[in-house]
Amino acid sequence: MASVSTTTPGTDWEYAPAPESREIVTIQREYNLFVDGQFVPPATGEHFTTLNPASEEPLASVAQAGEADIDKAVASARTAYETSWGQLPGRERAKYLYRIARAIQERAREFAVLESLDNGKPIKESRDVDVPLAAAHFFYHAGWADKLGYAGLGPDPRPLGVAGQVIPWNFPLLMAAWKLAPALATGNTCVLKPAETTPLTALLLAEVIAEAELPPGTVNIITGDGSTGAGLVGHPGVNKVAFTGSTEVGKQIQAAVAGTGKRLTLELGGKAANVVFDDAPIDQAVEGIVNGIFFNQGHVCCAGSRLLLQESVADAVLDRLKRRLATLRLGDPLDKNTDIGAINSRQQLDKIEGLVAAGEAEGAQRWSPPCRLPAKGYWFPPTVFSGVSQSHKIAREEIFGPVLAVLTFRTPEEAVAKANNTPYGLSAGIWTEKGSRILWMAGKLRAGVVWANTYNRFDPASPFGGYQESGFGREGGRAGLAAYLDA
Ligand code: NAI
Ligand code: MG
After folding, report:
1. Residue 276, helix vs strand vs coil
2. Nearest to 163 by CA among 229, 222, 223, 241
3. pLDDT (tens digit, 9 = 90+) per residue, 72-107?
């Protein structure tokens, strides 16, 4: 598949294709479940297909775990908690986590190519963001494993037991690392369920975990659809549930877990405001806006999907933003020059198309740069809506795609009111030269993460999580440890 530039042909110089080789990774025809340290066929006898969303080509057949498989995985995690992993001192657990971190680094290209194939994200993102951050999460938490008594959570915080963890498809390996690393560092054992459209890097991670010789059952990775996820979080042998995904499923899980005594953290959707003041460095802000909403095709819970522009600079910023968007390259995710890859699934593409149609029907102005979409696969062009009002569906609902809704404001108070006018509260961005305004805004914004003069920056030491319908609990940093400890 050729890489397609969004710029008008003839008016720019074309890039030669620069594809990363897919030979580095060997994809098996069929994958089984990783339970008790081994790959075992599912008791259901069922498998499903995961495909490459950029070409619709099937990549592999993956096991569908059912009730008996979940039972086995949870029982194996329980045994490991009681007899092996749960008995190890922190300094021993740390050694295993360092081993996993180093193995991810050593096999980084393999992980990156596999992630881009299964998910559709550009190789430059999987290579420079997802995989290095996944390794960083294991390194960071390895450092904590023998120092938990000094984390400010009491002298001897205890693990919770077996963690049931369900993750989404937008950052498959990275979300696996966000879930597994803190759980293991704190002495818990895990049953992890990756998303059905992107199971392959978690299964490669299972291989790494087996090679790192963690005691069998410490980490179990079971694939399947939503019913597998529901079976896992509802299993009576699970002590802690951690979920990242849609607000809708998060609410179902909260209801299922209520009254069971299980500990719960939910990291759900978002509709973040990225606020640009008239004193902001405009070129820098434009880069931040692009990164905020077009990074990972906008499949980002903390995406800056609502752009709030101060009225006096709104036209100038929009103008420069459009010029910048005309230079983005959409196409083959394995091409190193690609900025925008494929939409992860047909289902997600349908959702984006539906919300964009609603935006047009409600009277907002839709704009995209000239952009040819590849014939095969799931694609959506970078899209900007201006003339958006707060009541529009595209200003309220999470689109989870490369679609930006632009609103304006006059005063800082109005910016705060508009930014907070959402049922979500995961993240926000502020662009201004004034440090005092950054501090004032950060205190007023109802968002778990507030970035100033940057956007979508992640670090394992920095807690991440939301308010309201974005969920509760924090991941990363000291706060993230607390979610896996009885302190
Ligand atoms: P989803 O919430 O259905 O899927 C996320 C994970 O939950 C997957 O592993 C899925 O198999 C599992 N799951 C589904 N139903 C479950 C249940 N009843 N109990 C336990 N686990 C269950 O999200 P989906 O359908 O893939 O995406 C729908 C929308 O959700 C997106 O358009 C986006 O707006 C939002 N979303 C938000 C994410 C975030 O990072 N906050 C990630 C993925 C989706
Ligand atoms: Mg896939």
Report:
1. strand
2. 241
3. 999 999 999 999 999 999 999 999 999 999 999 999
CA pair distance 380, 358, nearest whole angstrom: 16
Ligand 2 centroid – CA 458 distance (Å): 24
CA triple 316-287-270, angle to 5 deg: 100
What is the pairing mode between strands 158-159 and 365-367?
unpaired
Q: To test the ligand 1 pocket, which listed residue (178, 233, 249, 301) has its Cβ within 8 A of the most ligand atoms?
A: 249
253 lines ligand 1 (CB under 6 A): yes
> What pairing do the DSSP bridges indicate for beta strands 30-31 and 189-193?
unpaired
> Burial of 29 by CB count in 10 Å (0-12 exposed, 13-18 middle, 19+ buried)?
exposed
Looking at the CA of residue 232, tell me the nearest atom of ligand 1.
20
Ligand 1 atom nearest to 193, measured from its CA: 9
At 398-439, the pLDDT tens digits run 999 999 999 999 999 999 999 999 999 999 999 999 999 999
Q: How many CB atoms lie within 10 A of CB 304?
A: 29
**Torsion sign, CA atoms 274, 404, 268, 55:** negative
Integer CA distances (angstroms), 165 to 44, 222, 229, 241, in order: 21, 10, 8, 6
Give the H/E segment covering residue 258. none
Ligand 1 centroid from CA 264, angstroms: 16
Q: Hey, what are 408's tokens?
A: 């304006």
Encoding tokens for residue 364? Answer: 């907002």
Q: Which 8-state DSSP code applies to residue 279?
A: T
The structure's pTM equals: 0.96
Ligand 1 atom with the smallest distance to the CA of 351 is: 32
Q: What is the phi-psi region of residue 197: left when phi exceeds 0, alpha when psi lies from -120 to 50, beta otherwise?
A: alpha
Task: Kindly give the residue spans of alpha helices, DSSP state H, lying in 326-434.
Answer: 346-361, 393-396, 412-420
